[in-house]
Amino acid sequence: MKSDSFPYPLQRIGIIGGGQLGKMTAQVAKRMGFYVTVLDRSANCPSAHVADALIVGDLYDGEKLRAIAEVSDVLTYEIEHIDTATLKALFAEGKKIYPAPRVLEIIQDKLKQKQVLDQAGVPVPRYQQVDNLNNEYLQQVTFPIVQKARTGGYDGKGVAILKSMADVDKILPVPSMVEEYIPFSKEIAVMVARNRQHEVVCYPVVEMVFDERTNICDIVAVPARIDPAMSERAQQIAIKAIEALDGVGVFGVEMFLTNNDEILVNEIAPRPHNSGHYTIEASVTSQFEQLVRIICNLPLGASKLLSPAAMWNLLGEEGYQGTPVIEGLGSALSVQGLSFHLYGKDTTQPFRKMGHVTIIDDSVAAALDKVEQVKTMLKIKA
After folding, report:
1. Is there a binding annotation on residue 370?
2. Is 345 annotated as a binding residue?
3. 155-159, 181-185, 321-325: least confident range
4. Which of 101, 107, 143, 183 lies 20 to 30 Å (CA to CA) from residue 271?
5. 242 is an annotated ligand-binding site residue
6. How far is CA 86 from CA 14, 81, 135, 249, in A?
7. Top-tier CATH class for 184-381
């Protein structure tokens, strides 16, 4: 029988990447009694203000990855752009890493990710590998189409929507995959938590609204305003996707709800996800605590929704760059049910994720109304 006694600190957790997701994970881990070391390129990254120790170095530097592994009992990551060759070597040597490096390697390549899901029977948009997206290829397609860089994309970068031959200047000059353009009624997402024993906890379906200027998620509302049977189907598809990867950890599964009521998986994030930030205030167990529980082999927490909620991403204002200035904070905090999160980034720039706001209320509609009010008040300038 496994011992239920723990020395202090409970375990030594290493987080690869020191951005806001790492910070929010470290905050939970510290609250629970863990020792946290973070690896990041910047000595002043958001996680540096929370972690017990910081290793400064590039996430593709094998020596730095080995350095954080040396001082940690278990490793996780808050970003996909990492040297998987070193992680795979560490894993083979017995280092505990969740999600496993092979899962990260699949997800890093959008084509491989789509192929694994497709082969497992998970519904996905039609797709094709295209090594050279040129005029000759475009003359054979039916527009619109979506070009995705196979690697390196994030926050809307690495995606090009081509509506006609006039969009040839938008073509990404990188190895790509091309997907059919999906006319959708909603973009939805589900957070899935799966532990080492393959037990699964699924969070409610959320709906996402994207900023058309940047293709960055603007607002998340929960529960999604869709039919309960549709919600159940989305959760089952999300679980099937993570089982297809044999993933252990916390995963954000982004999906399209089409105009024909189909549900298609768009992409998977192998880490806490923007669409799960609401769980800090609105769920019994946040996505960040769930990750800590899983990687440290502790029981899964309940995913029950305590209140309808809406989350708004606080981006740097267009036209401003430099030391952040938060305008309208007092006015925003006067809104009942609002929680304000500032990530601690020392420089703002247009559309950079600087923080988020979550509002809980008696209904999704009421929470969304308050978000629209707060959007007129709260600005990140410089």
Report:
1. no
2. no
3. 155-159
4. 183
5. no
6. 15, 13, 39, 20
7. alpha beta
